[in-house]
Write a structure and sequence with these properties.
Blueprint: H1 11-55
Length: 63
């Protein structure tokens, strides 16, 4: 179409996007490690006093 220009990303913009992907991947790895640590902690609590943990979720009197 006449009058419309197409803009193509320059090589520099591509490099910026690649550089931004690396910290995002590192953050995802850190988040995965945090979730794993939390799940391990939950497992430890359930192993030591699971009956007490479950009692906390039992409904009393139709609540």
């Amino acid at each position: 179409m006449p009058g419309q220009e197409q803009q193509r990303p320059s090589r520099r913009e591509d490099e910026v996007e690649d550089a931004a992907a690396v910290p995002a991947q590192a953050k995802a790895t850190e988040t995965d490690a945090d979730v794993d640590a939390l799940l391990d902690e939950i497992d430890e609590v359930l192993e030591s006093n699971s009956e007490e943990f479950v009692r906390g979720f039992v409904q009393k009197g139709g609540q």
